[in-house]
Amino acid sequence: MFLPKYPDSPTPPPAHTHTVANPAPMRRPAPQISISTGAVAAVIVGGVVLTALMAAVAVTAVSVAVAAVVLRSMLRDQHRP
Asked: Which of 3, 42, 78, 80 lies most in the core, judged by the most C-beta atoms within 10 Å?
């Protein structure tokens, strides 16, 4: 009574035709930035050299300041009557 009716000849199922209402915009891949190990090494060596130079300048400035204070005190002692 409630049995389904099958077609006599088998037919393939209809193709699924789903269309997208708002397609997503095409995303371009981000450009890859490749930094060579030589460039990284050059930046590190440059930083070390600049830091050493600044430390040398600071030590020289302190030593000159100490020498100036010592000379000033020696000259002041000579000019006292």
From this structure: 42
